[in-house]
């Protein structure tokens, strides 16, 4: 039985179409701006990560025969790039079996095979059989929720040693953060990379390879692995810059005109930072292993350059923690402002109620069902109003002097 991960889950609302809100009694006259904000936030908010596990009792890993051909909506695309310091060729592979049956050109020093789209597993099976990929690593490739990791599969007899690397990039698609896992199999002269969808960083590196002066062309396959991981890590910085701008805008809005939408914006920013941290933190551990652990497929030059990638990972983690602290501080500021505003309102209402306590008493006594004083003395009614105004004035003066107003 083939086990393929899926991010789809049944709609808990039953017959309600995606993107539509089920009407509830008593909520038909909501504020249109708040309703639109809730609707947009619900569509753009990423789902929380879920741990996907195989049913109990199944063996670990995915064997070659379990990889079956399907008819996916997105076809699998395979690009092969052969290069050396003097020459480079890129071709799109249609028939994988026929392509692998032909030996690579004699001038090739590094072969990079990149696979985009893993819904159709027939191509993955052919590559796995050709390059003797480990079943545990195949399972990790198909699992979109697999965290960044480094696994060493040493060679045995005629089986070459492989270094398996699972790295995570991040993209901003339609104002929604998407984590894109990429699996790498590193050999001595071959690098295999597998992705579920297209990543802009991969295309950028392929363009760099066509420059004759590119340092990538002068080094081995492990240096290409460094360049790809470095490009994936560097794409965290634009996402963090966008989060910083959103955080500054939300902070200004909280300080000038705090409302419920400001609090929702802060929660969205904090949620995005948590999603970024979930990918960036294990990436730092991965790069630390790559620059520290020795492997037959890793060159010393590549390990030296991985130090720079590690510095970038540390900077990313520092920025994430800083932004999270600022977001928490702004949220606390919002709560304090709302609490102070509520206290001011309650203070004004208390002062008004306190002023009217003696006036209510006088009006109650004066208005009792007795003989009215003005029937015998005409100035009694104006004197009543003068007494009320004097009492109210004295109380306001006392509140002002006491700092209550």
What's the helix and strand layout?
Layout: H1 32-44, E1 77-83, E2 88-93, H2 96-101, E3 110-116, H3 122-131, H4 135-142, E4 149-153, E5 162-173, E6 176-186, E7 190-195, H5 200-209, H6 221-234, H7 236-256, H8 260-292, H9 300-366, H10 380-401
Parallel strand pairs: 3-7
Antiparallel strand pairs: 1-2, 1-3, 4-5, 5-6, 6-7
Helix pairs in contact: 5-6, 6-9, 7-8, 7-9, 8-9, 9-10
Tell me what you see in this structure:
Mediates influx of magnesium ions. Residues 1-10 have a biased composition (Basic and acidic residues). Keywords: Cell membrane, Ion transport, Magnesium, Membrane, Transmembrane, Transmembrane helix, Transport. The chain has 405 residues and is an alpha+beta fold. It has 2 domains: 62-335, CorA soluble domain-like (Beta Polymerase, domain 2), CATH 3.30.460; 341-401, no CATH class. 50% of the residues lie in helices and 13% in strands. The protein is built from 10 helices and 7 strands. A 7-stranded mixed β-sheet has the order 2-1-3-7-6-5-4, with helices on both faces. Strand 6 and strand 7 form a beta hairpin. Helix 5 crosses helix 6 (221-234), helix 6 packs parallel to helix 9 (300-366) and helix 8 runs antiparallel to helix 9 (300-366). The termini are far apart.
Describe, in short, the structure shown.
Residues 1-10 have a biased composition (Basic and acidic residues). By secondary structure, the protein is an alpha+beta fold.
Radius of gyration: 34 Å
Helix content: 40-55%
Structural class, by secondary structure, is alpha+beta
Structure summary, number of beta strands? 7
Principal-axis shape? rod-shaped
CATH architecture of the largest domain: 2-Layer Sandwich
**What is the CATH level 1 assignment of the largest domain?**
Alpha Beta
Number of helices: 10
Mean pLDDT: 79
The succession of helices and strands, N to C, reads HEEHEHHEEEEHHHHHH
- Quaternary form: single chain
- Give the name of the CATH superfamily of the largest domain: CorA soluble domain-like
Report the CATH topology name of the largest domain: Beta Polymerase, domain 2
What is the CA–CA distance across the termini? 75 Å
Strand order of the largest sheet: 2-1-3-7-6-5-4
Main β-sheet: number of strands, strand sense, barrel status?
Answer: 7 strands, mixed
Give the amount of beta strand, in percent: 5-15%
Q: What ranges have pLDDT less than 50 throughout 5 or more consecutive residues?
A: 1-44
Total domains, how many?
Answer: 2
């Amino acid at each position: 039985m083939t086990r393929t991960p899926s991010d789809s889950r049944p709609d808990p609302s039953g017959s309600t179409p995606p993107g539509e809100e089920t009407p509830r009694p008593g909520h038909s006259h909501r504020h249109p701006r708040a309703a639109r904000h809730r609707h947009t936030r619900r569509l753009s908010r990423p789902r929380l990560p879920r741990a996907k596990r195989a049913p109990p009792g199944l063996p670990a890993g995915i064997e070659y025969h379990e990889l079956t051909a399907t008819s996916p909506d997105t076809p699998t695309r395979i690009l092969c790039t052969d290069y050396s310091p003097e020459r480079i060729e890129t071709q799109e592979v249609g028939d994988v079996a026929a392509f692998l049956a032909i030996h690579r050109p004699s001038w090739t020093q590094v072969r990079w095979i990149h696979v985009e789209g893993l819904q159709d597993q027939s191509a993955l099976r052919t590559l796995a059989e050709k390059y003797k990929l480990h079943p545990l690593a195949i399972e990790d490739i198909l699992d979109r929720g697999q965290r960044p990791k480094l696994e060493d599969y040493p060679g045995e007899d005629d089986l070459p040693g492989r270094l398996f690397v699972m790295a995570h990039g991040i993209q901003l698609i339609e104002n929604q953060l998407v984590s894109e896992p990429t699996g790498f199999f590193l050999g001595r002269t071959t690098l295999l990379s597998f992705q579920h969808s297209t990543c802009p960083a991969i295309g950028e590196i392929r363009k760099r390879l066509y420059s004759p002066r590119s340092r990538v062309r002068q080094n081995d396959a492990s240096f290409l692995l460094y360049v790809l991981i470095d490009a994936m890590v560097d794409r965290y910085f634009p996402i963090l810059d966008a989060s910083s701008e959103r955080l500054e805008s939300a902070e200004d809005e909280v300080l000038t005109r705090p409302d419920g939408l400001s609090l929702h914006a802060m929660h969205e920013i904090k949620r995005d930072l948590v999603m970024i941290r979930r990918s960036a933190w294990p990436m730092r551990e991965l790069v630390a292993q790559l620059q520290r652990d020795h492997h037959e497929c890793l060159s010393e030059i590549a390990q030296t350059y991985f130090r720079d990638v590690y510095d970038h990972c540390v900077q990313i983690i520092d920025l994430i923690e800083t932004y999270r602290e600022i977001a928490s501080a702004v949220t606390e500021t919002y709560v304090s402002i709302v609490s102070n505003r509520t206290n001011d309102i309650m203070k004004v209402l208390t002062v008004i109620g306190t002023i009217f306590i003696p006036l209510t008493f006088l009006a109650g006594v004066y208005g009792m069902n007795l003989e009215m004083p003005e029937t015998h003395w005409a100035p009694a009614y104006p004197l009543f109003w003068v007494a009320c105004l004097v009492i109210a004035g004295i109380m306001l003066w006392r509140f002002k002097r006491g700092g209550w107003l």
